[in-house]
Specification:
The complex is a heterodimer. Chain A has no helices and ten strands. Chain A is an all-beta fold. In chain A, the strands form two sheets. Chain A has a six-stranded mixed beta sheet, with no helix packed on it. Chain A is globular, with a radius of gyration of 13 Å. The chains are: A mainly beta, B mainly beta.
């Protein structure tokens, strides 16, 4: 059974940093691109970042480029999102999802709140 | 960027009704269009991929159609468990994927 479990969310002040993790199981992790999608409270879905299965190629939404870094450790079956210079508008539930085109499995999400 | 516009933004229908949601792309996207269901407080779930292919385990009352710029998601006979927000998503410009704003479906 495919499972994706996010962790690392919490309350952080504007300008602060946070690292999210997504532990994957039930499939060959290195064989799939992985993606982070976020959802601000009461709002729709926003693509954030994608990383290739090998980890060699990464892509970012303009809204996070230069502040967020996606990475993965295929030996640990874990996806990461390093978030720096956080802003109020980064407040959202962050989901990890399998795939780069359509997203066939999603985690339960982890809430990031940026507030002073 | 490719913009995705869903209509309506919300709708209310009765159990057993046929329901159709529309998604329009700002430019042709071939059939690179996917549909998700998000129940309240839950993660999104893939329903339909590449416009018309039913994801494994999804009830057959869900169907998708369209190509180019105009797409539809239909539910042939609405069930109480279908209460959710539905999102379309284009992958024509992968990895710069974009989602529609969502359609909230309620039961009358």
């Amino acid at each position: 059974e495919v499972q994706l479990v996010e962790s690392g969310g919490g309350l952080v002040q504007p300008g602060g940093s946070l690292r999210l993790s997504c532990a994957a199981s039930g499939f060959t992790f290195s064989g799939y691109a992985m993606t982070w999608v976020r959802q601000a409270p009461g709002k729709g879905l926003e693509w954030v970042s994608t990383i290739a299965g090998s980890g060699g190629t990464t892509f970012y939404a303009d809204s996070v480029k230069g502040r967020f870094t996606i990475s993965r450790d295929n030996s640990k079956n874990t996806l990461y999102l390093e978030m720096n210079s956080l802003r109020d508008e980064d407040t959202a539930v962050y989901y990890c999802a399998r795939g780069a085109e359509q997203f066939d499995y999603w985690g339960q999400g982890t809430l990031v709140t940026v507030s002073s | 960027d490719i913009q995705m516009t869903q209509s309506p933004s919300s709708l209310s229908a009765s159990v057993g009704d046929r329901v159709t949601i529309t998604c329009r792309a700002s430019q042709p996207i071939n059939n690179y269009l996917h549909w998700y269901q998000q129940r309240p407080g839950k993660a999104p779930k893939l329903l339909i991929y590449t416009a018309s292919r039913l994801q494994s385990g999804v009830p057959s009352r869900f169907s998708g159609g369209g190509s180019g710029t105009d797409f539809t998601l239909s539910i042939s006979s609405l069930q109480p468990e279908d209460v959710a927000t539905y999102y379309c998503q284009q992958s024509y410009s992968t990895p710069q994927n974009t989602f529609g704003q969502g359609t909230k479906l309620e039961i009358k």
